[in-house]
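Re: the request from the purification team.
They wanted to know what the chain is likely to look like in 3D before they choose a buffer screen. I agreed to run a prediction and write the result into the notebook, where they can find it.
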Amino acid sequence: TILATMPGIPMFSHGQLEGFSERYGMDFLAPRLDEQEDEELLQLHEKWIFPLLQYRACFSDASFFRLFEVQDEAGSALPQVYAYLNQTEDHHFLTVVNNSPLPLHARFHQTVPMVMKKGKAVIQTVHTLLPIPAQQNIFLRCREIRTDKQWQFSTVDLDREGFSFSLQPYQHLVCELSWSVGQEGNVSSFH
């Protein structure tokens, strides 16, 4: 998930998707081992990675990439959880990855310091990265693009606390963000 959603070009080596241990292509033209494809690994790639590769244009540019400082409920750093935002045109995508064998509750409201063009380190908040439309009864909808699971965050919660997710071990989320108008469960969306 991280490889497919970070800026730049994801590099897959020959045989990686199939689960092969032998790497060839540079030193010799044909495989020397008779390995069988790992069907379960291929199915996992088809479920979790291939859909992300269809969105590569949304993740490849670093201009709008922002890495969040992730904390637990007590405010301590959670270095095993990665959370970052990227956008293309008017579409925002949030990626959250629990790179841990433990279930974790992750909160994030501001980015890590980032040096901007003028050489000044800047920390941005969710509010500055996702300007809230000037309408009443607004929610931010997060839709996981592979499972269609959805979360909603009120503007008050986003402004005060940012994002909050309970993550299972090694869980990975890639959400498209959109503003919604209305009551929870009865909303209409716009970008």
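For the purification team: The chain has a mean pLDDT of 85.
Please add any questions underneath this entry.
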